[in-house]
Amino acid sequence: MSEDIPVIAIRNLHKRYGALEVLKGVDITAHRGDVVSLIGSSGSGKSTLLRCANLLEDSQQGDITFKGEPVHWKGEGLQRRPADPKQVLRIRTNLSMVFQQFNLWSHLTILQNVMEAPVTVLGRDREEAEAAARKYLDKVGIGDKADAWPAQLSGGQQQRAAIARALCMEPEALLFDEPTSALDPELEQEVVRVIKGLADEGRTMLIVTHDMKMAHDVSDHVVFLHQGLIEEEGAPEQLFGAPKSERLQGFLSSTM
Ligand code: ADP
Ligand code: MG
């Protein structure tokens, strides 16, 4: 892949739920190795944007391109849908999502949780998938929890298992939706450390977060969303150090 082709490019994206216009023309680009953080008040459209990016959610206008491959649509407006289910699967499995609430299967062990999708969705050989799952559990520091049940783990450990599960899909990019918001402060840092490690090894990531310190420390680019539009964006030093818009200034002072 040529380096100037972004892993994800979103152009002029519009999304509405009935009469509620949630995204009003948003552009996001992530090249290979980029960490892009999305910040903004609750309700500004951050989660919706992530869910539209990996086609968990429909959008009504605008383009989404994955490694130079534009999403094919059929229909228009509220009827617009992705046209090609195989393309949807390819894109979704390559943009692995990590959710605020971990979403582990409670009836599966940690190891089974991590190897489930590679086996059932990607058709990987079980032994291969298990070896990969153990490798990623080691990587996030919970190799010893492979045979535990999710309920036996702390929130921080469960979230690290969810990150291992996302990594086990060998995705092109990881999408995080408030990965530390459900965690007690003392458990947050173990997840932040894992995310920093992934940034250091050059993973492509879109991260919705209200942890401004993490956004500052891991991002190449930070986007401030306000009511479905990008109000300001830039390098973290600039965005956090010298915010231009009054709304961003207000938002940042309210998060201190
Ligand atoms: P954020 O993640 O920035 O807090 P969201 O993307 O979750 O914001 O939500 C943006 C807006 O869209 C909010 O007003 C929210 O109430 C609305 N919204 C989100 N999901 C749905 C849905 N499934 N149906 C209707 N409205 C929704
Ligand atoms: Mg959200």
Automatic annotation (TrEMBL):
<dbReference type="Pfam" id="PF00005">
    <property type="entry name" value="ABC_tran"/>
</dbReference>
<dbReference type="InterPro" id="IPR003439">
    <property type="entry name" value="ABC_transporter-like_ATP-bd"/>
</dbReference>
<feature type="domain" description="ABC transporter">
    <location>
        <begin position="8"/>
        <end position="252"/>
    </location>
</feature>
<protein>
    <submittedName>
        <fullName>Amino acid ABC transporter ATP-binding protein</fullName>
    </submittedName>
</protein>
<comment type="similarity">
    <text>Belongs to the ABC transporter superfamily.</text>
</comment>
<keyword id="KW-0067">ATP-binding</keyword>
<dbReference type="InterPro" id="IPR027417">
    <property type="entry name" value="P-loop_NTPase"/>
</dbReference>
<dbReference type="InterPro" id="IPR050086">
    <property type="entry name" value="MetN_ABC_transporter-like"/>
</dbReference>
<keyword id="KW-0813">Transport</keyword>
<dbReference type="InterPro" id="IPR003593">
    <property type="entry name" value="AAA+_ATPase"/>
</dbReference>
<dbReference type="InterPro" id="IPR017871">
    <property type="entry name" value="ABC_transporter-like_CS"/>
</dbReference>
<keyword id="KW-0547">Nucleotide-binding</keyword>
<dbReference type="InterPro" id="IPR030679">
    <property type="entry name" value="ABC_ATPase_HisP-typ"/>
</dbReference>
<dbReference type="GO" id="GO:0005524">
    <property type="term" value="F:ATP binding"/>
</dbReference>
